[in-house]
Every structure is written in C-alpha cells, then in structure tokens.
Amino acid sequence: MPTFIAAGGEGGYFHSPSLIHPKIILCMKEIYTNVPVAKRIFRNLLLGLSLTALSRAADAQTYCTPTYTYNCSSGDDIKDVILNGAAGTMISNLNNPCPPAGYMDYTTSTAPNMTATLIMGNTYNGNVTTSYTFASESVKVWIDFNHNGTFETSEVVSTLNAISNTSTGAITVAVPLTAMAGVAHMRVRLVYISSASTIDPCNNVSYGECHDYKVTLQPPAPPNNAGVGSLISPDGTPFCSNSMKEVSVSVINLGSNALTSANINWSVNGVMQPAVTLPSTLTYYMDSMTVVLGNVLFPTTAPLQIKAWTDMPNGTTDSDHSDDTLSTSATAVLQGVDVALSPRDTIICQGNVVTFNAGHFPNNPIYIWSTGSLDSAIQVSDAGTYSVKVQNTMGCFDRDTVVVTMHPNPLVNSVAVVDNGDNSFTFNVIGAQNITAYKWDFGDGSAAVTGSGLPPQVIHPYTTPGEYTVTLTLSNDCGEIVSTKQVLVGPATGIDSRSALQKEIRLYPNPGKDHVVINANSGVRITQIDIYNLTGQRILSTQAGDKQTIDVSSWANGIYHVVIATDKGRLTKKLEVIR
C-alpha cells in the first residue's frame, strides 16, 4: 500500500513525494492552473511536501532572509506597498516586479519615495495589494522598534487576511512611544495562507513575496521649534583669502506645526551680524531650507568662527534650545592676493609723470595692466582710469583701479588797458583759464592787489607822470603765468584842469543810436580816438582832427569808454548806445 501524509491548509491527503513522479506534479500544475479548486489542492500538496523537508530558521542578531519554494511564480505577489509617513515622506513602491527568490531588500534604495519618517506616538496609513485573483493571500508587517535585528511578535504593526486583487489592502501602522529613535527595518511579507497570524518573518513557505524597507523613527516634536542644521556655504570647495563669500545655513522645522516665521541670528568671530528672517514656510516636521545670511570677507587663511541660531519660531519662545545653534568654522585655504595700488587716485600737472606700484606677492603672481604692461609698476603721464589684475599660481587674484586727473596749466589771452584820461587806467584780463590766484603789480611802488579765482576788472590811479610796467601774475597748483603791459602817464596839460579839457570836447548825441559826433572847440586839436567795451576790448581806433563822426548802428547796446587824445592831454568819456 502506498503511504499517505497529511498536508496543511485545506486538510486533504496526498501521496508521498517518493511515490509521485516530478513530471506528474508538473502536469497536475499545468492542468489545474486556471481551475481554482484544483489549484488550491495542488498548492496544498506542494505545501505539505515542503513542510516535511524544510525547517524554520532565524538569526537573532541579524535580519533573516525569508525564502519561498515557488515565490510569486503563480501570481502570489506584492503588487503595491504604500506607507504615508510624516513630513511628506512616503514609501510608494508600485507595480514592482517579482524578485527571483521572492525576497527584495529595498533598505539601500536611493529611488524617490522608498523610505518614510514615522513619529513615535502617531499612526500612519497605507496599502499592501496583490495581483492574485482569489482571496487567499495574507500579509503581516513588522517594524524592528528596538533595532535588535529580530522581528518580534510585539513588533507586528499590521496584518491583512484573505486579500485578492480586488482588495484595498489597507494597513494602519501605529508607532509606540517606547520605540527607539533612529533608522529601523520594516518587513512586509505576503504568504499564500488563510490567516496572517501564522506568518513567520523568516521561515520558508511555498508561495508569496517579501520586502524590507527603511523607516526613520523620531520622537514627538514640540509644536513650535526651529533649529540651524548645517553650514551650506562656504562648502568644502577651496577658495582664496581676500575674497567675499556667501554664508548660508540650513534651517529646519523641528516642531509639529508648520514653521511660518523665525529669526536667524548669526555672528562672525563673535561679532554680531544683521539677523535675517525665514524667507518662506516649512510645512512639515524636519522640512528644511537654505537661508542666506550674508556675505563675509575672508581676509587671510585664518579660520573664521561662524555661529548661527534661531529665535522666536512662529512668534513664540523656542521650547527647545538644544537644537537651535550651529557653531562651526570656515577657512580660505588658498593664499589670496590683496592689491592696493600706490598712490591712490592722483592729480598730476601737464608734462608730469606718476608711477603706480601694484606691490609684490608670494606664489609667482602675474601682473596684467589695462595699458598692456606686465610689470609690477607703470608710469603714467595722461589722464584716465588705470587698472591691474594680479593673479598667483594658486588661481587667486585681485584687481584695483585708480583714476588720474590732469590739472591744466594756467592760461590767459591778453590784458586790456583803458586810459581813463585822468591819470588812471582800467585793466581787464581777457581769456583767463585754470586760475586759482592772481596778483597785480602796477609798477609804481603801490601795494600789490591779490586775490583768488579769476581776476576782476581793476582801476588803478597814478600820481606821477611817467612810463610804468604793469605785471599780472596768474597761478594754480601746476604753476604760474606772467603778463606785462606798458602804460604812459602824460605830463600836465596847458589847460588848468581835466575838467576844463572835458568842456572843450563834446560827444553827441549821447546816448547814441546810429551816429555820434566827437568835436573839439577852437584851440584844442584831437590827435587820436580809441573806443573800448566794458570788457576792455578795443573796438575802434582812429586818428582825427577837430571833428569826427562815428557809425554805431551795428554796435551792441551798452556802455563804451571813449579815450580821446589831444594836444592838451587825454580824457575819457562814456558813451551809451541804445537802439
């Protein structure tokens, strides 16, 4: 008689495998693949055969690897695993292919949405679904809360019984307050079996699939809490001293409420810097953002101590100060260049030269001037802007710029002299430019007339007849220019006084419009007439007899000086032209 053994699951009895040829078993599977009852009977046969040959194994110190005889070759798979964690994290592993051995370790996956953060004391929802047509699949989920490498009975967080491809597979995961914070393993195991209560995390079964995932367990957060996590910039990239670098840090929401506002204070080498505010909202616990604090000059390769800390999250006093503060240092490891041209912005006079020196630096620098020179110093004789770039062999460089202004020499066109006819003369300076000071010396021993800026009109009387040399000295920072004029002061006339001579000479009409007449009475002969405008410019000079008619129709309106020389002396009359 053939021997029979009992097979679990459906309670049927089948022949011992020693009496059933393997090809018969394969044939039976092919026949009954699409017949539900026959398929279940065939599975019970294989399950019974497996239970007689395999034993349960578990390693208490490491995570065991569950095994399957036939894994999910007949559709007994884990189709989707979804777990919605805290702070927007989630596990969302959809339509994943069945692994060859029925087991897949996703704890090292870097794909998006393959890990979740779970807060102790909170409950999270998710789904585990299957592609199998009949409600014969069960699921058990563990999380190693104490991180001892074993999935214990007390660490079962969810079970599903008798699900199929039409089941929602909804799971609920509660994280106890007694869990150990940190990264933990979560195991999701599906087995072709009627009750999840009998599923073991490690043993061998016939059909099913198993996944391991990584979850991060965190203690409950206070409602309003913020902290500075790390220095984002400067990062580890080497940079040069004597350079400005942006300083930024990560700010983290360490509270259970959305973080809408916070102050970020900071200092450099103990010197307080202007505080900044949180630029936008951090919605979830452990959400973070990069906040730019400001720019800092790293003058040398000595490290700078940077301290940053948060204050007043959501307008409240921070309930936990232990995680507020970041204290770190940043260093410019490359020797930089600090160029300061000497001299600085300069004013030079025409014809002069100034030398600009860029200095000397280590690490074999090169010098590149805006003039094209490659020397460490240049000579400049023209106005303009001059710059230099100095770069050393470490790639560090600096630039500096100076401006050269050309100070012009003093200039003058001429000095106009008007003989007023009463032994006084009117002096006007024509075309003076770039003048900061002046000095008149009238050559008669009188005190010099000095002043700053452009010289105004000046009238000087002489007391003694004679010929005098009038000297005008104009100057500025770049030098001086000297102009001279000769004036002749005539002897006394035969007429008793100047006023008497004035009566002998008539100028009419005055004001004049078209013509004016200059006429001398008998006994006085006019020898020359010179007419000057108010700026001292001579506009007419003529020799005449006793009477002279002058056309003024083209003259500009204004006052003119008429200097009349006679055989009895000289006199000046004022003429007004009006049209």
If you had to describe this structure to a student in words, what would you say it looks like?
The chain is mainly β and 579 residues long. The protein has six domains: 4-53, no CATH class; 67-218, Coagulation Factor XIII, Chain A, domain 1; 226-330, Immunoglobulin-like, CATH 2.60.40.10; 346-407, Immunoglobulin-like, CATH 2.60.40; 414-489, Sandwich (Immunoglobulin-like), CATH 2.60.40.10; 498-577, Immunoglobulin-like, CATH 2.60.40.3080. Helices cover 6% and strands 46% of the residues. It has three helices and 40 strands. Helix 1 (22-32) packs antiparallel against helix 2 (36-53). The relative contact order is 0.07.
Index terms:
579 residues; Coagulation Factor XIII, Chain A, domain 1; 6 domains; 4-stranded antiparallel β-sheet; 46% strand; disordered N terminus
Would you spell out the secondary-structure blueprint of this structure?
Elements: E1 4-6, E2 13-15, H1 22-32, H2 36-53, E3 67-71, E4 80-84, E5 90-94, E6 103-105, E7 114-119, E8 123-129, E9 137-143, E10 156-163, E11 170-174, E12 182-192, E13 204-218, E14 226-233, E15 243-253, E16 263-268, E17 271-277, E18 288-298, E19 304-311, E20 325-330, E21 346-349, E22 354-357, E23 366-369, E24 377-380, E25 384-391, E26 397-407, E27 414-419, E28 424-430, E29 437-441, E30 449-452, E31 458-461, E32 466-476, E33 479-489, H3 498-504, E34 505-508, E35 515-520, E36 526-532, E37 538-542, E38 547-551, E39 558-566, E40 569-577
Helix pairs in contact: 1-2
